[in-house]
């Protein structure tokens, strides 16, 4: 047990140093393996949702069969039983290993002012009844309350399972699960859950000020939620923030409707000492001038389609850079090609520190990577990523 604690502490120290753009003993290898772990273990998504032990074993196996310094995932990330008991409307499990989103356009274009006035009240009293079937069923109040309470029980059970899986990986294997919480930026919430893509894009053009004001109010609401559930930075941990909208915005629109709440949240994170793993989806090069103004040593930037070398050159003085290993190469390349690509990444990205090696996107299904390629690149960084 003492050896496992020492291993865990070593991993925490390595990750903390790199979060702060420092030079650890070697380049860390980070696991972005989500549902891929379930396939690799030979299970289905439906199977591990119903069997807690199989769920743990799937994420344990991916961590033990490959080399990693830390992981984002210790289990399934969506509380499917909770959403199902609310009557659906958010996610559903498909026959593949994917979780498919439900209908998202539940807010009207003329309701932004109501959302901005009191986000929590508006969502609870207006939007949730539109989204979740339980609230509109023709049943007694007592039955509705009973079923809602049962859904909440499922949510707490899901959260408890995540904590137990994380603790087991630490206690049994010295594994660091780095994700301390997950949150979405305000406009991403509007796109993903309230107005859908088409509605959101039209709103940005037709009523940008109302969108911006709603995002500002949502920012305050989200910060309070994070502080309530995650009051202090835990060494080795990050708050995961996937970013869905900006890659579709021109700089002027980004500056008006997305940037103010984005900056507000990350400035607040900096004051609290939080670390944020920002998943910069698609390409963000057209917005690098704005990212220069982010607080230093607060963001770990995971870049999907950007030139990772340019990202470090332009932004490495502000944030730690993560990513660089294309999943297309992991799936379709040879082992030798993948290792050669990894060597080139280390040559260019390791000097000066502040770099985490991982795939450029989250691994979701069986076709995202050949196991032999994934194993080879991770072990190459382990053996050759030393400073």
Automatic annotation (TrEMBL):
This is Uroporphyrinogen decarboxylase (URO-D). Transmembrane segments: none annotated. It comes from Oxobacter pfennigii. It comes from the Bacteria. Gene3D superfamilies: 3.20.20.210. Residues 193-382 form the Uroporphyrinogen decarboxylase (URO-D) domain. One of its GO terms (molecular function) is uroporphyrinogen decarboxylase activity. One of its GO terms (biological process) is porphyrin-containing compound biosynthetic process.
């Amino acid at each position: 047990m003492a050896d496992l604690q020492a291993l865990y502490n070593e991993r925490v120290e390595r990750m903390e140093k790199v979060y702060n753009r420092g030079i650890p003993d070697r380049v860390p290898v980070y696991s972005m393996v989500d549902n891929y772990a379930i396939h690799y273990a030979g299970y289905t998504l439906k199977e591990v949702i119903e069997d807690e032990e199989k769920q743990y074993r799937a994420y344990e196996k991916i961590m033990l069969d490959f080399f990693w310094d830390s992981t984002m995932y210790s289990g399934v990330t969506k509380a499917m039983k909770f959403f199902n008991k609310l009557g659906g409307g958010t996610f559903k499990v498909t026959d593949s290993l994917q979780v498919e989103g439900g209908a998202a356009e539940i807010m009207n274009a003329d309701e932004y002012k109501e959302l901005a006035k009191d986000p929590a009240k508006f969502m609870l009293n207006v939007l949730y009844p539109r989204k979740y079937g339980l609230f509109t069923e023709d049943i007694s109040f007592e039955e509705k309350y009973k079923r809602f309470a049962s859904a909440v029980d499922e949510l707490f059970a899901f959260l408890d399972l995540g904590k137990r899986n994380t603790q087991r990986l630490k206690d049994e294997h010295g594994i660091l699960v780095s994700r301390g919480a997950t949150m979405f930026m305000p406009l991403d919430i509007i796109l993903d859950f309230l107005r859908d893509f088409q509605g959101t894009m039209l709103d940005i053009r037709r009523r940008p000020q109302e969108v911006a004001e709603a995002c500002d109010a949502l920012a305050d609401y989200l910060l309070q939620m994070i502080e309530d559930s995650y009051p202090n930075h835990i060494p080795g941990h990050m708050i995961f923030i996937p970013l869905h909208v900006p890659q579709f915005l021109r700089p002027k629109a980004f500056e008006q409707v997305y940037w103010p709440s984005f900056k507000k949240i990350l400035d607040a994170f900096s004051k609290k000492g939080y670390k944020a793993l920002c998943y910069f989806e698609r390409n963000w090069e057209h917005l690098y001038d704005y990212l220069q103004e982010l607080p230093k040593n607060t963001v770990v930037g995971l870049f999907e389609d950007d030139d990772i070398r340019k990202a470090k050159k332009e932004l490495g003085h502000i944030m730690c850079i993560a990513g660089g290993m294309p999943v297309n190469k992991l799936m379709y390349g040879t082992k030798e090609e993948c290792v050669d690509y990894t060597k080139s990444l280390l040559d260019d990205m390791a000097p000066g520190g502040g770099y985490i090696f991982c795939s450029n996107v989250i691994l979701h299904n069986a076709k995202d990577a050949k196991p032999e390629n994934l194993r080879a690149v991770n072990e190459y960084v382990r053996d050759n990523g030393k400073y």
